[in-house]
């Protein structure tokens, strides 16, 4: 599938980032740090057109995401049209801005699945990380979601400050009857990159977390599916990021820019086409940006001659750019990368920071419009 | 009490997918493409017919094929995957 020509690939996965507005302020948010720049959100009609065009090309999974998608008052209308078009519709939410009436309205509109994020397994840390008093409300909403027979995914982003709670987190997800649990290790782009010193877990933490995750996977077999992925800074081979550039994923940012992944906006020298100017078919098949890293011709060594290139496509383009300054380099997670040692050294450096007073008292930079403006 | 009448579980969706040219099972952020025979069985899991009725209907549609064991095995697997459930009475 991945790495094939545009005429053979299809945007099976449409991620609609409806807005970057969000009542939460998680310091590991994967949104760009430039969120304050995105004032001009697409109108309802634009989204309806995007959904129709992508569906025609074979898109099947549709994620309503953000920011917090519940902020959009036209969400019910978008869900109704998505379902009519035959999409499997996923709502990816913090649960803040949700109430029982709205969850029912979504059901009637045809929403298939709700994913609720938790920041931690206790009120104090959850509310601190989210910058909002939201813990009790999230739990209430999770119960409503299950009462209405939705499949429910609970998503918890793991990092240094909550990974030691993994057992409590999993107990909480069991108590809430989750169908799936995503223990998502923080990916270090966007806000988490700014906060990496505070967020990157230590090797000792990860060893313990993995043990607990495997224990619960075994224990909950057939009842609850637990997805746990080792953070890739600790791996020797990169992920097949997005299953290859322009292969199956299509993200539309709140302003209408079309991206092969939700972190791609940071890549320099690429002009991402906007759905206000172009149709999805043209964007997917013909745009320079979507063709940029398709196939293998763009690769440098060690990827170019690597027998594994068809498996991982050289890893993540954004990570290659962030860590080496050149998006055509191998993802430094790979131990064949000329920059792997540098990444390794940085992980070790951060590992040694933990526990020191100076480090522990350093504040996290929370994701909000004020901090975004300051960073731009 | 559970019956012998299979139906699609509420946490999964089953539909014909034109772009894939096959029936698919959809679930949160995922999709399974079904073979032609699996699709023919699944589309009969409508919460009305019991397993024997599904088998005899398939025998009429595909005469001369000994499919009983295959159908029963497939339904067992589908249940283990959570795609179908046997309706409670």
Question: Could you explain how this protein is built, in words?
Answer:
The complex is a heterodimer of chains A (376) and B (89). With 376 residues, chain A is α/β, with parallel strands linked by helices. In chain A, 37% of the residues lie in helices and 12% in strands. In chain A, strand 1 (13-17), helix 1 and strand 2 form a beta-alpha-beta unit. The radius of gyration of chain A is 20 Å and the shape is globular. Chain B is globular and about 35 Å long. In chain B, the strands form two sheets. Chain B has a three-stranded antiparallel β-sheet with strand order 2-3-4, with helices on one face. Chain B has one domain: Outer Surface Protein A, domain 3. Chain B starts with a strand and ends with a strand. In chain B, 35% of the residues lie in helices and 30% in strands.
The proportion of residues in beta strands of chain A is: 5-15%
Terminal residue distance of chain B:
6 Å
Oligomer state equals: heterodimer
Query: Runs of chain B with pLDDT <50, length 5+?
Result: none
Helix vs. strand class of chain A: alpha/beta
Distance between the termini of chain A: 37 Å
Strand order of the largest sheet of chain A: 7-6-5-4-3-2-1-8-9
**Tell me about the biggest sheet of chain A?**
9 strands, mixed
Mean pLDDT of chain B: 92
Compressed to H and E, one letter per element, the order of chain B equals: EEEEHHHE
Structural class of chain B: alpha+beta
By CATH, the architecture of chain B is named: Alpha-Beta Complex
Give the strand content of chain B.
25-35%
Which regions of chain A have little confidence, pLDDT < 50, spanning 5+ residues? 1-6
């Amino acid at each position: 599938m991945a790495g094939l020509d545009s005429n053979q690939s299809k945007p099976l996965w449409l991620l609609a980032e409806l807005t970057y507005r969000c009542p939460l302020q998680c310091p590991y948010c994967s949104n760009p740090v430039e969120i304050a720049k995105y004032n001009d959100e697409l109108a309802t009609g634009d989204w309806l057109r995007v959904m129709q065009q992508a569906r025609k090309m074979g898109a099947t999974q549709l994620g309503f995401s953000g920011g917090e998608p519940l902020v959009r008052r036209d969400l019910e209308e978008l869900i109704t049209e998505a379902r009519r078009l035959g999409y499997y519709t996923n709502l990816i939410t913090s649960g803040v801005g949700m109430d029982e009436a709205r969850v029912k309205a979504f059901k009637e509109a045809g929403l298939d699945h709700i994913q609720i994020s938790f920041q931690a397994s206790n009120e104090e840390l959850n509310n601190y990380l989210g910058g909002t008093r939201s813990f009790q409300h999230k739990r209430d909403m999770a119960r409503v979601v299950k009462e209405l027979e939705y499949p429910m995914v609970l998503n918890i982003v793991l990092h240094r400050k909550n990974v030691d709670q993994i057992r409590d987190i999993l107990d909480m997800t069991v108590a809430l009857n989750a169908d799936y649990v995503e223990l998502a290790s923080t990916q270090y782009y966007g806000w988490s990159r700014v906060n990496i010193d505070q967020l990157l877990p230590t090797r000792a933490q990860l060893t313990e977390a993995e043990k607990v995750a495997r224990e619960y996977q075994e224990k909950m077999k057939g009842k609850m599916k637990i997805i746990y992925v080792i953070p890739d800074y600790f791996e020797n081979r990169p992920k097949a990021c997005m299953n290859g550039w322009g292969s199956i994923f299509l993200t539309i940012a709140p302003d209408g820019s079309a991206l092969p992944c939700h972190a791609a906006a940071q890549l320099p020298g690429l002009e991402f086409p906007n759905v206000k100017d172009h149709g999805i078919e043209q964007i997917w098949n013909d745009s320079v940006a979507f063709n940029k890293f398709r196939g293998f011709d763009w690769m440098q060594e060690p990827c170019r001659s690597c027998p594994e290139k068809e498996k991982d496509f050289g890893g993540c383009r954004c990570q290659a750019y962030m860590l080496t300054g050149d998006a055509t380099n191998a993802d430094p997670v790979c131990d064949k990368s000329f920059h792997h040692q540098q990444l390794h050294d940085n992980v070790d450096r951060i590992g040694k920071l933990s526990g020191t007073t100076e480090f522990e008292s350093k504040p996290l930079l929370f994701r909000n419009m004020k901090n975004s403006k300051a960073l731009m | 009490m559970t019956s012998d009448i299979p139906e699609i579980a509420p946490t999964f969706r089953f539909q014909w997918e034109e772009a894939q040219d096959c029936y698919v099972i959809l679930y949160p952020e995922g999709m399974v493409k079904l073979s032609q025979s699996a699709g023919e069985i699944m589309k009969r899991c409508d919460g009305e017919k019991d397993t024997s009725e599904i088998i005899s209907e398939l025998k009429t549609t595909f005469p001369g094929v000994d499919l009983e064991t295959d159908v029963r095995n497939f339904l067992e697997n589908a249940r283990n995957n959570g795609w179908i459930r046997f309706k409670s009475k």
